[in-house]
Design brief:
The chain is α+β, with helices and mostly antiparallel strands. The protein has 4 helices and 7 strands, in the order E-E-H-E-E-H-H-E-E-E-H. A 5-stranded antiparallel β-sheet has the order 2-1-5-3-4, sandwiched between helices. Strands 6-7 form a two-stranded antiparallel sheet. A hairpin with a 2-residue loop joins strand 3 and strand 4.
């Protein structure tokens, strides 16, 4: 587990990047892989490279990282694909329980994402 990542995070999957695409994927935790409302860390050699959230299924969100490159793509996204080529990346994730406030269920994964970005300052997050 990467240093500093909360202990509640679980190993979800690993994949190798080849020519800008995720290949040779191994899923270790199918439940989290198919969950929504998840905060996740993309890591390499125990270093946090990216913190994100998945409002929908985590599997779809990870696939979006390797979809077609839109015209408005951020340079960090392109730089990551180049840097990651040939490397094996690991995804760790946590699904926090929502809280009840004002009689409403409030998902807190977005707040957890923001706090973790502030803590780790990962190199491939464009919002830093």
């Amino acid at each position: 587990m990467p240093s500093g990542l909360p202990k509640r995070f679980r190993l979800v999957c690993q994949y190798r990047v080849k020519n800008g695409k995720a290949c040779d994927r191994i899923v270790f935790n199918e439940n989290l892989w198919q969950s929504s409302g998840v905060v996740y860390a993309r890591t390499w050699r125990k270093k946090v490279l990216y913190i994100g959230k998945a409002d929908g299924k985590l599997s779809r969100r990870i696939a979006e990282h390797f979809g077609r490159i839109p015209k408005y793509v951020k340079s960090k996204d392109v730089n990551y694909r180049k840097w990651a080529n040939g490397k094996t990346t690991t995804i760790w994730a946590f699904k926090p329980k929502s809280v009840k406030l004002f009689g409403l269920r409030i998902p807190i994964h977005a707040g957890a994402e923001a706090a973790l970005i502030k803590k780790f300052k990962p190199p491939y997050v464009s919002r830093i």
